[in-house]
Design a protein that fits this description.
Radius of gyration of chain A: 59 Å
Number of strands of chain A: 0
Helix content of chain A: over 70%
Oligomer: homodimer
Distance between the termini of chain A: 129 Å
Structural class of chain A: mainly alpha
Largest sheet of chain A: none
Strand content of chain A: under 5%
Largest interface: A-B, 221 and 221 residues
């Protein structure tokens, strides 16, 4: 206990110096740490710049590849389009439209990735370079601030050292003064114990001058030493007070430095770093998000076109493009031989009975045939439904392939197994083709039936009309056998101008509608109803008359078609 | 008029044959059209396959480049991480985290584009190849159906030809029988006019046998011819009826073919084409949309990390990592010299008056200094706010660069002009650096002021405490000058075990909070409030004691740190 309490100047100074040295080491290390931090930032920023420089190159390569790809097919389309000038947009098939839009999307992606590359190079990298500059500059400035802080610490610790030394000096002097005072006191005491004997002697001998002078001398010395001691003690107290006050100030400054100033110095170093970095990353994100939005818009356009894939409309476009080929021919007209003036079925006796019999035969035959063919049609419809179900199965979702599990090696298998496994496909396809075969065989059967029905029906209807007329005007309209009949007027062809309308864009739509509405139609497109059929044929005939004219019909396909 | 009406066999047959030939030509052209259509489909499907094959290559190249890019930096990070093992996730700086996530996103994009490439190759292209097969197969089958249809047309037109020829034959015979009958009638008439004269003569001459026999002969011939004519006329009527009935049937079959059958044939050819193509495009779209979703998810993760860029938390992480360097040192303790037992400021007379005076001087000096420094602080805050505004300006939106106008050549200029124009940047940066300079000069001023304040405040507080104590216990606690004071107990260091807690993860947070709440704190981090300061210092001290121990403190940084 006493060894620790009775520390000498040198020990104390050594302790103090150790402590100060420790602090100075920390200060040096703090600068090193700050420098190291700045260096890692510079490194990070360099890495980021290098990363974006290379990514910009990759994006540009990708963009160029996509552009080249799109251009390769686009130029092909352009040249074939020039060749087939007449294929205007109105004739653009829905399937071809999808293909064109996929090419558009590829061009769009190409442009967007080029833009991305441009933003990396001319914006993101520039920002990163500026942040690097800022980091270097701010590190220097912060270090300046740090040096000022450290100087303050050196100053206060030096002051503390000084006042401590002063305290030591005065305390030493105070101790020495005290011991001297104690010495004097001891001497005085000794003198007093002597003078006690002396006093007794004095009373006896009354006058012993030299002894009295000695005592006074000792007292004087004691007083002097007391004064000296008091003076030194006061000096020591003041020095101690100064030491204690400076100690408090030093501790406060050190505490402030470690708790606030060092943090402030780092803040100075950090100034704007995170904000600028955030803005740089946000520029990157903005570019990426915008690329994505643009990509999405393009995909939506394609999706819309895919939704609008329409075989019916494509079929009409094709027929419209080749209207000369699909235009119904003129009716076969009755051509009277060598001025034969009869131009109707004659139902007078003796053929009347025979025709009547034939009519009834046709009627019963037709009834049977229609029932039979209706059965075939039902099978056909069911088969088509099965085929439709096969053909429209929703097997196109590949989202499983984009699940980001930790293991990346399973991606390939996911994509190929669940959607397009060889076994699955083979099964589906053989099933589909089998159904297709059955459909075609049934369709041929149906076709035979309906052809027979349409022929018999035509004859039946003509006979019905004739016999009806015959019954109504048995004697009125039929001429006497020997007299040549009053010549009936040949059906006059309608005036041409009436039919100068669009071919399939005009009446075609109307009769397509009729066909759909026709209750006998199969799959909405086949009819055994002769009334419907005849009516449509009339329309076709009139179109035919228009189309067969040797004057170019400007109205038919917008002026580009010749006949 | 008469020339058209009196058409002969050959003319009629020629007309008919022209009409039939026209139809046959159309049928041939229809097959050609169907074939051409199938060929364009095959071509389109080939183009699509070729497109996706090449795009799969491009995607794979892109994927590989991205992977290489990510790997290059990731391996660098791994090696540096091994070197700095102790940098656990808890020490991952928010800025470095963003960088790692950008690398993750690059890897993710790489994987997704590889998946895209895989789906193109193993799904989309396969589908397209199958559709090609289908188109070829269905064209063949539809052509078979078409041939059947055409055969039917040939059959009915041939039949029409036959019945027309029959009608012509019987009509010719009927005409000849009629003319023969007319001849006989003429002869009879001539005979009658002669016999009219004869009858007058007969009445006169009564018997003229040979003349009567001739008349009967003529009558017989006429009857015979009449019978022949009637027979031929019936035959002709039947033939004409047959012709007319067949004409109706033929027209009905032709009409049916042109209106329904040809359309049905095209439908057979189209069967499933649009549906299968749609499914293929939807597979492509599904892949693209999923890629986009994955990309978006990745970007959202980065955006979240950017939102969480936090300089304060990074600073604490750095200080935590280097806690030895930033740990506050031990307080400078009062070290009594040579067993000096006084360890407090002595405020007895004669120093009391002086200390009191000094105390009041400090008080007024502090008041002035604080006001002055508060002014500096206000300027500092305002400057920091200006800097903050500059550093957080929202200049990162690059959506304009992704606007798809028709003209693509303006993209570059948009990206570089509006966001990162050289002039704009230079202006902003010089402005920013000027403000920064001003901030630093003000900060130094503030630092000087606050250092002075903290020192004076420490002395002031110590004096206040001493004088207060002195007033309260003027005679009680102060020892008489000559007697050495009763030794005061040295402040005992607290037991070490108490401070075996985490360093900055524990108390650091608490005092960071306190610092924020400290009303004197500048920017939440600077304080001139000595109470707050002292309190924090106490905590630091205790940490210091723990950290300075020569036994490794397992609790401080999770066991990996040594002292």
């Amino acid at each position: 206990m006493s060894s620790t309490r009775f520390k000498k100047d040198k020990e104390i100074i050594a302790d103090y110096e150790t402590q100060v040295k420790e602090i100075r080491n920390q200060l040096v290390e703090q600068f090193k740490c700050l420098e190291q931090q700045s260096e890692s930032r510079i490194q990070l920023l360099q890495d980021l710049q290098e990363f974006f420089r290379r990514k910009a190159e990759i994006e540009l390569e990708y963009s160029r590849s996509l552009d080249k790809l799109a251009e390769r097919f686009s130029s092909k389309i352009r040249s074939s389009r020039e060749h087939q000038q007449f294929k205007k947009d109105q004739h653009l098939l829905s399937s071809v439209n999808c293909w064109y839009l996929v090419l558009n999307q590829t061009r769009r992606e190409s442009r967007d990735h080029a833009t991305l590359s441009d933003i990396y190079t001319n914006n993101v990298i520039l920002r990163l370079a500026q942040i690097s500059e800022d980091v270097i500059r701010l590190f220097k400035k912060s270090k300046d601030i740090g040096i000022q802080m450290h100087e303050e610490l050196v100053k206060v610790t030096n002051e503390l050292y000084t006042v401590m030394k002063t305290y030591h000096m005065y305390h030493t002097e105070s101790i020495s003064a005290e011991s001297k005072l104690k010495d004097a006191e001891k001497q005085e005491e000794k003198q007093f114990s002597k003078s006690g004997d002396l006093n007794v002697n004095l009373l006896r001998h009354e006058d012993r001058q030299p002894r009295r002078g000695f005592v006074r001398k000792i007292e004087k010395m004691k007083e002097k030493r007391q004064a000296k001691y008091s003076e030194n003690k006061l000096k020591c107290t003041k020095a101690r007070n100064d030491y204690l006050l400076n100690l408090a100030a030093t501790n406060a400054v050190v505490a402030k430095y470690y708790i606030h100033d060092v943090s402030d110095m780092i803040d100075c170093c950090d100034m704007g770093y995170h904000a600028s970095l955030a803005r740089t990353f946000r520029t990157y994100l903005s570019a990426e998000y915008n690329l994505e939005t643009s990509r999405h818009e393009g995909l939506d356009i394609i999706e819309n076109a895919v939704d609008n894939l329409d075989s019916r409309s494509d079929k009409h476009k094709i027929m419209d493009m080749h209207n000369q080929v699909f235009c119904p021919p003129m009716r076969f007209e009755y051509l009277p031989h060598m001025g034969d003036e009869v131009c109707q079925v004659s139902a007078q006796q003796p053929v009347q009975t025979e025709l009547l019999m034939r009519y009834h035969q046709l009627q019963s035959r037709l009834a049977t045939l229609k029932i039979e063919n209706e059965e075939v049609r039902k099978t056909l419809d069911a088969t088509m439904q099965t085929l439709q179900d096969m053909l429209t199965v929703e097997d196109f979702d590949v989202s499983d392939a984009f699940q980001h599990s930790r293991s990346t090696e399973s991606i390939k298998s996911v994509a190929s197994e669940s959607y397009m496994s060889k076994l699955n496909i083979a099964k589906r396809r053989s099933n589909q083709q089998e159904t297709e075969m059955f459909y075609f065989s049934k369709f041929k059967e149906y076709l035979n039936g309906s052809n027979l029905i349409i022929k018999l029906q035509a004859k039946h209807d003509l006979l019905k009309q004739t016999l009806g007329e015959g019954e109504r005007a048995e004697c009125g309209t039929t001429r006497p056998p020997t007299l040549p009949p009053k010549p009936q007027k040949m059906r006059k062809p309608r005036p041409r101008s009436m039919y100068n309308h669009k071919l399939f864009n005009g009446n075609m739509e109307t009769f397509i509608k009729r066909k759909k509405e026709c209750p006998y139609s199969h799959s909405g497109f086949r009819s055994t109803d002769p009334t419907c059929c005849r009516e449509l044929y009339q329309i076709h005939q009139s179109i035919r008359f228009a189309a067969a004219g040797d004057i170019p019909c400007a109205g038919i396909t917008g002026g580009s078609q010749r006949y």
